[in-house]
Amino acid sequence: MVDDELLEILVCPETKQPVALADKALLGQVNEAIEAGKLLTRGGDEVTDPLEKGIVREDRKVLYPVRDEIPVMLVDEAFDLTTIETG
Question: How far does CA 64 lie from the centroid of its chain?
């Protein structure tokens, strides 16, 4: 589990906007895009492994993956949510 205190101090490295844990609905949409082969990292790499957790930027345009309980706050590893349909 990503620590609440860590979430309070984390910000998007690009825009400095606050971030929060992605909810199950958003993760479901992201994982559907991954399964369909429609999701790339912002660095251009194809995403093939489904996400169990992610951290979403306040404007809900970018999601950072969480791997092994560690938020990967790298711009090139983030997912551009504007390229997939999110509710």
Answer: 3
CA dist list (Å): 11 to 17, 26, 29, 36, 69 = 5, 19, 23, 29, 17
Residue with tokens 């991954």: 34
pLDDT, tens digit, 9 for 90 and up, residues 11-67: 999 999 999 999 999 999 999 999 999 999 999 999 999 999 999 999 999 999 999
Q: What is the pLDDT of residues 63-78, one digit of tens each?
A: 999 999 899 999 999 9
Residue with tokens 């790298």: 74
Task: Locate 10 and state its tokens.
Answer: 């984390």
Q: Which amino acid is at 48?
A: T
Domain enclosing residue 50, as ranges: 4-83
